[in-house]
Write a structure and sequence with these properties.
heterodimer; A: 259 residues; alpha+beta; Lambda Exonuclease, Chain A; 2 domains; four-stranded antiparallel beta sheet; 7 strands; B: 142 residues; 3 helices; 6 strands; 23% helix; disordered N terminus
């Protein structure tokens, strides 16, 4: 029996957005255009224009052992060239950031190839071959899943996702990697993701107003303006069903009949 | 911090009334300075403690451990006659009142100050939120 792929239940705004972000057939909106060199600077793994360092010879040299899986899977560009594995990490504020870490994991694995991702309470890391990671990072920073004020690019000391925002509406950052430019009304990066000061400031644009964020977010919240998850009956039923199956049958939910 | 010459918490020994002002947004050093200076001159305010998110002096983890953070909000502010290095992005004030204070009248004065100076919103409660006599921790810190 062939199943049609489903993504997420529910009818409320966060549920619809979750479905949209997860579905690889839906294009993410591009809201800004940050130069690739600037993305590379913020990531801090290499200088713009510098060659990629490699950890093994290019695959085309043909020194790989014979393996049916290797033959089956098309390697991504960075793997072909033998690039290092590098990382980028996003932190998402609970105050209606466009996306939250758990949906990031779902979205990454649903849309992209060749990455490893890890979910923590307020942050989401992507590990990937360097040249592919840079392209993916630019794509994510330019897309609607990024908000300059509520999404942080933070390699370490990510604390801030659950803190109150500051007076300018920016998520708290103890390392002050980005600041508010009051004249331009924009968010400006002054440090890379591990707090090394940048040679020059990099603007990532204007934050979205709260009214727009409430339409873009995937976060259910009882906080003012948000959608309480309990108000979406289908989402609630889905959560309860998973909880019940896990409680009754652990990792063998197929053994529970009639639920 | 107090209206006297010290920035150390002093314990009254009895549970005096305390007003908790909790801001909706974390305040800048400039706003914090204004609020503290407006509160400290109120007649029945005995002591003000602040809370918020700590701003570290140096990077404590990652490949750049040890380099200075230089956070623009970590700076010296002037409260009354005291110069104080603010180490937090402040999100709350615990205003302890004197034993002889008219609590309702003082709370109204505090509310007026907050309405004027905390533009991003706040909540205000009266109760007792912190300890009023030294405990073992204070002994260990000495």
């Amino acid at each position: 029996m062939a199943y049609k792929r489903q993504f997420y239940p529910g009818t409320t705004i966060p549920a619809v957005n979750r479905r949209r972000y997860l579905d690889p057939k839906q294009n993410l909106k591009k809201l800004r255009d940050i130069a690739m060199d600037d993305v590379v600077r913020i990531m801090g793994h290499r200088n713009p224009g510098e060659d990629y360092k490699s950890i093994h010879p290019p695959l085309e040299e043909g020194k790989e052992p014979k393996c049916p899986v290797r033959e089956l899977v098309e390697p991504i560009e960075g793997a072909k060239k033998g690039d290092r594995v590098r990382y980028i990490q996003f932190t998402d504020s609970v105050y209606f950031a466009p996306i939250s870490p758990y949906q990031r994991a779902w979205m990454y694995l649903s849309r992209f190839r060749g990455l490893d991702t890890g979910t923590l309470s307020g942050r989401q890391i992507i590990e990937m071959r360097e040249r592919d990671l840079e392209k993916l990072s630019k794509f994510l920073i330019d897309s609607e899943t990024f908000d300059p004020a509520l999404t942080g690019i933070r390699g370490a000391t990510v604390h801030g996702h659950a803190c109150r925002l500051d007076e300018n509406g920016l998520m708290f950052d103890a390392w002050q990697r980005y600041i508010w430019d009051g004249r331009k009304k924009e968010v400006v990066y002054v440090k890379d993701q591990v707090a090394l000061p940048l040679d020059r400031k990099i603007s990532v644009g204007k934050p979205a107003p709260t009214s727009e964020l409430l339409k873009r977010t995937t976060i259910f919240s009882a906080y003012t303006g948000g959608v309480d998850m309990r108000d979406d009956k289908e989402v609630t039923a889905y959560g309860i069903r998973i909880h019940k199956l896990r409680t009754l049958a652990g990792y063998q939910p197929f053994n529970v009949k009639g639920v | 911090m107090t209206g006297a010459k010290t920035t150390k918490t002093t314990y009254a020994g009895t549970p005096l009334p305390e007003v908790k002002v909790f801001t909706e947004r974390l305040l800048s050093a400039e706003s914090t300075e204004k609020v503290l200076n407006a509160l400290i001159i109120l007649k029945h305010v005995r002591q003000i403690n602040i809370c918020g998110e700590t701003l570290p002096l140096t990077v404590k983890s990652g490949p750049n451990t040890g380099i200075p953070v230089n956070h623009p909000e970590r700076k010296v502010i002037k409260v009354g006659d005291n110069e104080i290095e603010l180490t937090k992005l402040v999100g709350g004030f615990y205003v302890e009142l004197n034993g002889d204070a008219d609590v309702d009248a003082t709370v109204e004065e505090i509310r007026k100050v907050c309405d004027k100076l905390i533009k991003t919103g706040y909540s205000l409660e009266v109760g007792r939120y912190s300890k009023y006599r030294p405990t073992l921790t204070d002994t260990l810190r000495c």
